[in-house]
Amino acid sequence: MNDVGTAVTRRRPLRLGVIAATLTGLLLLLCCTGGTAAFFLTGLGGDDAKSGDDPAGWGCGPVRPVNIAGKLPRFTEYGDAQIRNAAIIIKVGQDMGVPSRGWVIALATAMQESALRNLANRRVPASLALQHEGVGADHDSLGLFQQRPGWGSVADRMTPAYTARKFYEKLVKVRGWQRRPLTAVAQQVQVSAYPDAYAKHEEVSSRIVDALAGGAARTVEINGKAMCNAAERGEIAASGWTAPIPGGVGSGFRTASRPGHDGVDIAAAKGTEIRAAAAGRVLVAKCDPDNRNREDCDVDGFPDKGGCGWFVDLLHAGGYITRYCHMVVRPRVKEGQMVAAGEVIGQVGSSGNSSGPHLHFEVHLRNNRNPSGAVNPVPFMRDRGAPLRRPA
């Protein structure tokens, strides 16, 4: 990003380990100029079926019922039969009235357990006589969710709609399941030997839900209704994302006048709470040194001071990193801490290279905290139902 002072040697992209207000006056051209400071571093349906990999076709709302017998989009990650199973899982959730966040969690779980295949088991001979799409050997587990005998009979566990229903019945009993990290909720239902494995499927699961159900992963449940593109102020979209603060984008991403600006600036009153845009792990929570290598973040900054001020970097499932700069005081989180989507991590301020209170917000891909990993946060957040915009 370009909010901080002269860059030193950039660190290589992070490798993943085990994982987990209103505007004040006119929007100014908030400074955030200069180089980077000491840290930074740091289907079925034939050949004409629409590709589910294309976000342009998702739209959002009203959420449409899934037609499991009709044409379904194709995805590079899965074959036609697997997407048909995904449609069944979503349809069961819709029929049961489970909010769309549940569909995302269910799909991600089935992706991890069976790669969306209805698996028989060579240790359960009766399952081999039933319709199946592969043969597993995990204890006596069967079907899309690899359920064991306590979940039902062999025939039941080999029936995709039955297994999805049983999963949802347990899911909705998990306290706070709509706000908790996907992997934590899935693990509480499944009791897997690999509790951190579910998170890596959240992104693809959201894309499939969007493509099959009219952008449903971009909705959030508010007063019992699915609202599109409304994930802010702590409301979490089915995708698992929320806007860090409500507000309109002032200075944009890599504009003609500021080609090195690797994020966007959102003006807000000093002290406005900043929320984690998604569940993740704190990589950094510190004061970024200014151009003179001073850790001087407890005072308001000024243009050309350099540095991000008090800031936080979070690592999310899928190798995404979000960055939150210019906090007014020390962040509320610490390095290594796991945070939930929407959790307050700090407050808006004007520390570091800044001309007024605002949040400088960045999104990076592929675990890469360097400018080469930065993408425009505006379309990124919009595609997740958590748009960066001026509040109504």
Describe the structure.
The strands form 4 sheets. Strands 5, 7, 8, 9, 10, 12 and 13 form a 7-stranded antiparallel β-sheet that branches. A two-stranded parallel ribbon has the order 1-2. It is elongated. Helix 1 packs antiparallel against helix 2 (100-114) and helix 1 packs across helix 5 (160-171). The relative contact order is 0.18. Residues 1-49 have low confidence and may be disordered. The longest helix is centred in the N-terminal third of the chain and has 17 residues, at 80-96. With 392 residues, it is of the alpha+beta class. Helices cover 20% and strands 15% of the residues.
Short description:
This protein has 392 residues and is of the alpha+beta class. The protein has eight helices and 13 strands.
SSE ordering: HHEHEHHHHEEEEEEEEEEEH
Secondary structural class: alpha+beta
Question: What's the number of helices?
Answer: 8
Main sheet properties: 7 strands, antiparallel
Helical amount among residues, as a percent range?
10-25%
- How much of the sequence lies in strands comes to 15-25%
What are the low-pLDDT stretches, counting only 5+ consecutive residues below 50?
Answer: 1-49
| Count of distinct strands | 13
Distance between the termini: 29 Å
Shape: elongated
List keywords for this structure.
elongated, 8 helices, 392 residues, seven-stranded antiparallel beta sheet, alpha+beta
Secondary structure layout:
Blueprint: H1 80-96, H2 100-114, E1 120-121, H3 125-128, E2 135-136, H4 154-157, H5 160-171, H6 182-190, H7 202-212, E3 219-222, E4 225-228, E5 264-267, E6 273-275, E7 280-288, E8 309-316, E9 320-327, E10 338-339, E11 344-347, E12 358-364, E13 374-375, H8 377-382
Parallel strand pairs: 1-2
Antiparallel strand pairs: 3-4, 5-12, 6-11, 7-8, 7-10, 8-9, 9-12, 12-13
Helix pairs in contact: 1-2, 1-5, 2-6, 2-7
